[in-house]
Specification:
Helices cover 19% and strands 46% of the residues. By secondary structure, it is α+β, with helices and mostly antiparallel strands. The chain has a domain at 24-75 and 233-305. Strands 1, 2, 17 and 18 form a four-stranded antiparallel beta sheet that branches. A four-stranded antiparallel beta sheet has the order 9-10-8-11, with no helix packed on it. A two-stranded antiparallel sheet has the order 3-16. A hairpin with a 2-residue loop joins strand 9 (149-151) and strand 10 (154-158). The longest helix has 25 residues, at 2-26. The two termini are 45 Å apart.
Length: 309
């Protein structure tokens, strides 16, 4: 009887404490704990098996709540082949340059020209009749007959048939008769002259192939890329965790937590040392942002905020 009564009392006290704790956590208008016996201590039982209905090994003054431990992920980087190794053919076009070249425009030849003969006009005497002699009648001073001629102071006449009477006969010279004639004579005969005509060339700039076109094989290496992905390490679960709630909280502790949250950019309210809705929301945002368990102000959260109790 006594043993059964004790068990029933213990169950009643435990159930009542759990309900009171749950109510206080949800209550925004709690009274600050000023009792010197309000214990804020981090015991050895921070995490408990989530399958039980009550945390074990608890000591008076400690508060616990079932917190949600988020799934844990890790970032892994894998190298994946994006494209395999391959080859590509490309044609390298021919290369051209320029050179100077001398080309024949007109072949060498010769030109024949005739140089006419050169002449001069000369004069010469031509014998018309040679010198001769003939008998002429002379004038002996006693009378003459026929025609008298004077030659060198003597009168004479031609005699054709001897003499008649006492006429004088003279044998005289009959000079030769000449005449002047003009003649064109060759000084330099006509000739043909050959004049060489040199070949005609022209210097031109012509295009020349320096390198013939060819096909080149290019090796294209395989391409790799790094893929970063999140891999789940553990699933989300619930566990009992020691927390600071309205039952065991004090002004100093909550003020430190509020200041740390404000410094981290999660709390915009006043630092009033009260664990109200705005502070609880700020705590949850901080926890979610840092991958911490949510559901209460755990000691893990306090440590992450850098608050020394």
């Amino acid at each position: 009887m006594t043993k059964s009564l004790l068990l029933m009392c213990a169950l009643f006290i435990s159930t009542g404490f759990a309900k009171i704790t749950e109510r206080i956590i949800k209550d925004d208008n709690f009274a600050h704990s000023t009792s010197a016996n309000a214990m804020i201590s981090e015991g050895s039982n921070l995490n408990f098996n989530g399958s039980g209905d009550r945390p074990s090994n608890a000591i008076p003054g400690q508060c616990f709540a079932k917190v949600i431990i988020p799934a844990k992920f890790k970032t892994v980087t894998e190298t994946m082949q994006a494209s395999p190794e391959s080859t590509r053919l490309s044609t390298v076009p021919a290369k051209y340059g320029y050179e100077t070249k001398r080309i024949l425009i007109k072949e060498a030849s010769e030109m024949l020209s005739t140089i006419p003969a050169k002449y001069k006009t000369v004069s010469k005497k031509v014998l018309v009749s040679p010198e001769t002699t003939e008998w002429k009648r002379g004038d002996n001073g006693r009378g003459t007959s026929g025609v008298a001629y004077s030659n060198g102071g003597s009168s004479y006449q031609s005699v054709s048939n001897g003499t008649a009477g006492n006429e004088a006969l003279c044998l005289v010279k009959k000079p030769a008769v000449y005449k002047t004639v003009y003649e064109k004579v060759v000084v330099e005969p006509a000739r043909t002259v050959s004049k060489p005509i040199p070949a005609v060339y022209k210097t031109v700039r012509v295009q020349k192939m320096i390198e013939a076109p060819r096909t080149v094989e290019h090796r294209i290496p395989a391409k790799f890329q790094k893929l970063t992905k999140r891999v789940k390490v553990s699933d989300s679960r619930t566990e009992w965790a020691q927390i600071i709630c309205k039952t065991n909280a004090n002004y100093s502790t909550i003020s430190k937590v509020q200041s740390a949250l404000k410094k981290a950019g999660f709390h915009s309210g006043t630092t009033d040392g009260r664990l109200g809705n705005s502070t609880a929301s700020a705590i949850e945002r901080f926890q979610r942002s840092n991958g911490l368990p949510t559901g209460g102000l755990t000691f893990e959260t306090i440590k992450a905020l850098g608050v020394n109790l």
